[in-house]
Fold this protein.
Amino acid sequence: MKHLRILPTLLALAMAAAGGSVYAQAAAASAAAPVTRAQVKMETAEFLKTHRWDEVNENWVLKSGVEAPAGVKTRAEIKADTNQFLRNNRWDDTSSRWISLKEKPRDLSTMTRAQVRAETSRFVRTHTFDETTQTWVDRPQPKKK
């Protein structure tokens, strides 16, 4: 009979210990950066001075005549950076990572036949051979509606 009481007691102690450590982590995180109500009100007021709600796009946008904060890139700069990254890199589904196009070519002898076949079919899906220039060219991407 004593053994039956020990099991629930041990279970209760384990749950109490786990609950205490979770509470300790939450308390430490909240003590690190307490934000007062006055700070939140001040940040909200500053934000509303420089931004307005765009009903069409359902997004906050800068008011006309207001400069973007220092260090924030313009939309054109972000698009240019994105396009440059996409020109210099490609996504590899097999390794789930971006691969630089400026690296030296892979050694096909280290790849399995299935990997070579999959990569070849992916390449043929995205490229066509131009008979006039005798080169492979990217297929045009279908237009999104």
Notes: The chain is about 50% helix and 15% strand. The chain has a mean pLDDT of 81. Helices lie at 2-32, 37-50, 75-88, 113-126. The first strand starts at residue 51 and ends at 54.
